[in-house]
Specification:
This protein is an alpha+beta fold and 134 residues long. The protein has four helices and five strands. Helix content is 23%, strand content 38%. Strand 4 and strand 5 form a beta hairpin. It is elongated.
Length: 134
Amino acid sequence: MGITRTATHTFSSEQIDLCARLTGDLGAHHMGGHGDRRMTQGALTLTAVPLLAEPGVHMRKLSFTFLAPVFAGDTVTATVSVQEAEQAPDVPDGHVVLDCEVRVAGGDGAPVLAGTGVAELPRELFAELTREGS
């Protein structure tokens, strides 16, 4: 389809603390560390993915596999690639549904998260993404 969004993010211990307070995910590997390094929560790793939390975007379906840990201080690169766009019958006028592939890689390029998603967004935002992707 040709629409791809990529973002890079470095996670901090402060973000792990905030995520723990917001989600209640206080696992020992997040709070005390795994070895000598604090591991991000899965929900926190997802915040690096572009499009997921963009204004006007409603995620209808998400399916992810966490492949490797992400630690405080790690930088990841997250990519969303649109596989298909459609006007589904249950979508309000002026909106479009996108089937997306999601990949997140660590600083060494090794995958840490992979999955798919279905996003509903306003047609104007879709047109903007289409212009950016060309």
